[in-house]
Amino acid sequence: MAAGLVAGGTLAVAGPAFADDAPTSSSGVTATLEKATVAVGDTVQIDGKDEGAGLFELQVDGGGTIKTYCIDLYHYTQPMTPYKEVTWAESSLVHNDNAGRIRWILEHSYPQVSPDALSKTFGVTLKEGQAAAATQAAIWHFSDNVDATSTNPDVQKLTDALESKAQNVGEPGASLSLGSPEVAGHPGESLGPVTVHTNASTAEVALAPGAPQGVTVVGKDGKPVTQATDGTQLFFKVPAGTQPGSAKLTVSAQTTVPIGRAFVSESKIQSQTQILAGTSTASVEAVATANWANKGPIPAVSAMKDCAKGGVDITASNKGDQPFTFELGGQKHTIEAGKSQTVTIPVAEDQAYDFTIKGPNGFEKRFQGVLDCKTAGTPAPSAAPSSQPSPASAGGSSSGSNGGDLAETGSSSSTPMIAGIAIVLVVIGGGAVFMLRRKNASGQ
Predict the structure, then answer these.
(1) Which of 380, 404, 382 is nearest to 393 (CA)?
(2) Which residues of 290-314 are buried (b: 16+ CB within 10 A; e: fewer)?
(3) What distance in Å separates the CA atoms of residue 358 and residue 363, rounded to the nearest whole number?
(4) 72 to each of 128, 276, 282, 437, how far by Cα in Å?
(5) Of residues 42, 33, 47, the one with CA closest to residue 443
């Protein structure tokens, strides 16, 4: 492992004869930010500069839309960026003692509360764009420790009220998640449990295409399962004599994503972290994998970002009858039969990582992502401007704008473009490559 970098390459593993592609998300909504500009908002001032402040709209994969506010002011938004629903522990909110106050603001302001209702409660007169800008300004106060102000006294009055009244409430639960994204065992057994956590009334359960003949998904009672509710335990039933291999199950639902869920960019190009403010009924899906073999080590491997530790937790368990040994970060790790171990791989902030765990008999597991655990902070005043053009403003006026188009949040027409992105290619192990990116702070 290079200093400040992550080992991105092949990890040698003694494993049974099965393989698996990169796992699909084991929890939550995935969505795409198609336009890097606010859909509804107005202009506020930060340190004397205009900033576009308001709601973004993301298209949910599989159907539906979600509305979000920015909680990472000094990162740029990037068009056509994929986003993923995550826990606060997997985002910059893990370090934020005021995360609960942000959620309170979301639940007590626009769009959860109409502009007319806000105007009546606080004695102001607001359009949609103005209400969105006032709400975003209050959120930035707690997410980025900045004071965004407005020349409109009614907008400023709502911002001040939200900041003063905000209470620290708890984190919302996931729309859909699976307690165990990967399980393992022997043929002839029911492998699991995979516990469903969801706010949907019911979720559909199915075995993914490509599973070996005879493999089924069953409940705790051993009977086939096609639907699940919150708390349902699922198992892969693998007939005795089935050749070593793997299978996946999917759990899907139509549900409303809880207000206050964090959304982080899944792109290697940095795009600011968002927080959910409004949602239609959306399609959500989660996937779990089962591995099995007759003898030897039988691993189950999963990964999760750990913002508190500043890295990625690789969890490996061994349901086999022989030790499971793999190399990670230049160190060998051995999981005894029936045991489990979690190894944290340090990753630099805003750094892409790419881990592939391979075994000689076909076992393969790949984990990719970007560690985005901190807000960018105030841009350095001495940063040299880029020769690239400034970001384009929004394509049209918002409903609350007093004239002119809105720029991206985290930038404006008067803000210089990003100086550039440093790309470092690091070859470790089997020649794997990953990207190291610096923060794209506004003003660089």
Answers:
(1) 404
(2) bbbbbebbbbbbbbbbbbeebbbeb
(3) 5
(4) 22, 13, 24, 17
(5) 47
Closest CA to 121 of 133, 107, 108: 108
| pTM for the full predicted model | 0.73
Contact 439, 376 (CB under 8 A): yes
List all residues 6 or more positions away from 398 whose beta carbon is below 8 Å from its beta carbon.
38, 39, 40, 41, 42, 54, 128, 129, 132, 406
Q: How far apart are CA 177 and CA 180, in angstroms?
A: 9
Cα 362 to the center of its chain, rounded Å: 30
Residues of the chain where predicted confidence (pLDDT) is lower than 70: 1-27, 269, 329-330, 358-363, 377-444
Q: How do residues 423-432 score in pLDDT, each as one tens digit? A: 333 333 333 3
Torsion of CA 377, 379, 381, 383, to 10 degrees: 140
- CA separation for the pair 306, 89 (Å, rounded): 7
Q: Per the structure block, which two tokens stand in for 270?
A: 């940095």
Check: CB of residue 71 under 8 Å from CB of residue 273. yes
The alpha carbon of residue 21 and the mean position of all alpha carbons in its chain are separated, in whole angstroms, by 20
CB-CB contact of 410 with 426 (8 Å) = no
Between CA 245 and CA 212 the distance in angstroms is 8
CA distance 50 to 47: 9
Closest by alpha carbon to 437, among 304, 347, 315? 347
Task: Please answer whether residues 284 and 175 qualify as being in contact, where contact means their C-beta atoms are separated by less than 8 angstroms.
Answer: yes
